[in-house]
Specification:
The chain is mostly helical and 134 residues long. The protein contains eight helices and no strands.
């Protein structure tokens, strides 16, 4: 996307640069595996309930489209309305920072190219910060 509109930027999309659906799924799986395994993400994990299966699927569907690939999430649920859909969950600075740290760790472990990683971290932080509701 270009900064001022919804027009895709020329060249390969972040979705393509990551490696398509299989790579996005691997990133999402590592993200939620880390959330389950690492004590540093304890508060973030607590917000997600007993099982992570639904969260895994929804993040995969969302990220595919957000990264410039297939619009799986929109096809199933319509506009993401992220803030509205996350209102039932208490999201503060701690949860935002744990989400970002967990995603950053997952991207590093999945060997996302440094320039793309930097760009994604910046964009994801803006979204994560906007999601705060406490």
């Amino acid at each position: 996307m270009t900064p001022d509109d919804d027009t895709p930027a020329p060249g390969p999309t972040p979705f393509d640069r990551l490696g398509g659906e299989a790579a996005v799924q691997a990133l999402v799986d590592r993200f939620y595996d880390l959330m389950d395994l690492e004590p540093a993400y304890r508060e973030l994990r607590a917000v997600h309930g007993d099982t992570l299966e639904q969260a895994r699927a929804k993040l995969f569907w969302f990220l595919c489209g957000w990264l410039g690939g297939p619009q799986h999430y929109v096809e199933r649920f319509g506009h993401p309305r992220l803030r509205m859909r996350h209102m039932p969950f208490a999201i503060g600075i701690l949860e935002r920072d744990q989400w970002m740290a967990c995603m950053h760790q997952a991207m590093v472990e999945r060997e996302v190219e440094p320039e793309l990683l930097e760009r994604l971290v910046a964009s994801l932080f803006n979204t994560a910060d906007w999601m705060r509701n406490k």
